[in-house]
Amino acid sequence: MKMRKAVGLVVLALALGAGTASASVSEGRNCGKVSVGYQGQDLMGINNFSDTSSIGLGALNGLSVRSWVTNQVGIEGNLYVGNWKNNEGDGEETNEVSVLLGTVKGLWAPVVRENSRFYVGLEVGFGSYDQQNVSGPDEGSADNGIYIVKPLIGVEYNFAGIPELGINFEVGYLFAGVHWDEQAYELDAKSTMSGTSVGLGAHYYF
Known about the structure:
8-stranded antiparallel beta barrel; about 60% strand
């Protein structure tokens, strides 16, 4: 049901954007250029694992490469890292998590202005979810796999005085799954989680 709602929102955004595209598309900044910069995601609201509710995600910070291949079509690659601790309700630390995640993001901008773009997109990625438990029956460490899928909407703004600099803000609904290490947990299990993800980035175009 959550997946259907998220996809429905993206389809609605596409439809609304397509309806205004003919009147809202002009020549945007940095078309055909490649940029390097920062991209971050706030995942603090994503902690509802299907069977391990005490485990969640924090914030990810990433090195990012973005390019507007055409005036309306863009692609982005990110390498995210994150590290945080999870606690029980009484404040006792239960585990420490580190994530290394690589993603690819496809972008389409139905509304393009001289200094801004409104876009929709889809981000997918794979990586490692390394967890070290400091208490409980699963005390120890394990290297687990993680994947994400995130439909999103966003805007990128270029300052008139510094057209090479692009600042972006994104909101999406992220679906993630963790494949637990079979040897560490004596099982071959998967957990899923989902929630709203807010992103912020800055890129310099060459």
